[in-house]
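Limitations
The structure tokens in this dataset are predictions for the assembled complex, not deposited experimental models. Users should treat interface geometry with appropriate caution, especially where small molecules or nucleic acid strands are included. An illustrative entry is reproduced here so readers can see what is and is not provided.
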Amino acid sequence: MQVVVALFDCFTALDAVGPYEVLSRLPGASVVFAATTAGPVRTDTGSLAIVADAALSKVTSCDVLVVPGGPGTRAAVIDKALVDWVAATHAKTAWTTSVCTGSEILGAAGLLNGLEATTHWSRVAALESYGATYSERRVVQQGKIVTAAGVSAGIDMALTLAGLIAGIERAKAIQVGIEYDPQPPFDAGSVTKAGPEIVDLVLARATSR
Amino acid sequence: MQVVVALFDCFTALDAVGPYEVLSRLPGASVVFAATTAGPVRTDTGSLAIVADAALSKVTSCDVLVVPGGPGTRAAVIDKALVDWVAATHAKTAWTTSVCTGSEILGAAGLLNGLEATTHWSRVAALESYGATYSERRVVQQGKIVTAAGVSAGIDMALTLAGLIAGIERAKAIQVGIEYDPQPPFDAGSVTKAGPEIVDLVLARATSR
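Predicted assembly:
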């Protein structure tokens, strides 16, 4: 089973690495990180580079496509080569997935029109500009398209997908393998739970980037 | 505030990227990935390389040290250059942290003798061979040393640390920024919750690697 994680400049690392850590543990899985040009791709902070081992042009099909998000999405959605590659690859996948604002790239590829989907909570309007309807669910499945909410939601998405692909027993084995028994020290992971003052802190920082 | 993530061959990607994703969002944080030799470092699956932008020898101090784990720990604990670097760097940190079996490297550096610490649930005896006492808590703080349980626990550890470094409001802002409102599709993230049959599946796979 071939899994491809499509990278682009200024993506968010955990969006890509969360699903990778889960899906790479599926029996028979082979994961390839790919980008327009093979080589190191910098994340949104500038302080981390992940290597794309393949150029997208060399990857002509895959079983599972993972598209991460991040601030780089804004350039990625108008990168015709990337968007056309996503559309063409999707035609042959078993599962096409996104994390965070990666769903905007699926949208730009014309894959979300009329569907429910999710994204980072701060980018709902951008997602809906592609004809999708935003859902507040953390993982949204519509046929073979599975979108996840912001950043860390890719782990939950990939475990859900692991269950669909390999069965619940195997997915549970992956979960305990990565000891995913989350115990966040605060209960502030959603807009509702964090409240308006904390949300304003996040938005102020995002604007200042 | 300088954060250093120390990489080595065959580390587990999420161990490193989880804390990075949280700590890089602290105000004034600068993160550097470092390894014995600068350049791409392959993770445990072989299908992902993360770039070490610096050689360890060029990093003479940091405020926060993050040591990931993974199957490569078994070689790392007898890599004298790495272990000596960890010991020397720890002497000047504000916080020294590990994720998963990264605590074995702290142990090899002589940092855990007589302390409580944690690791991946499958490696308790290895951790205790360094004079540490295993704790079942997900995040274990002993003075300036903070160890996290397996793989995904690094996210909870880093959020805990973010609260200690920058205050709870800022840590909550980071939590909602990465939308960390975990909703795993299964309740199998610990040995107790997964049960013996699922745990055997994991151990069988680990042995076959």
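Some entries come with short summary sentences. For this one: The first strand of chain A starts at residue 2 and ends at 6.
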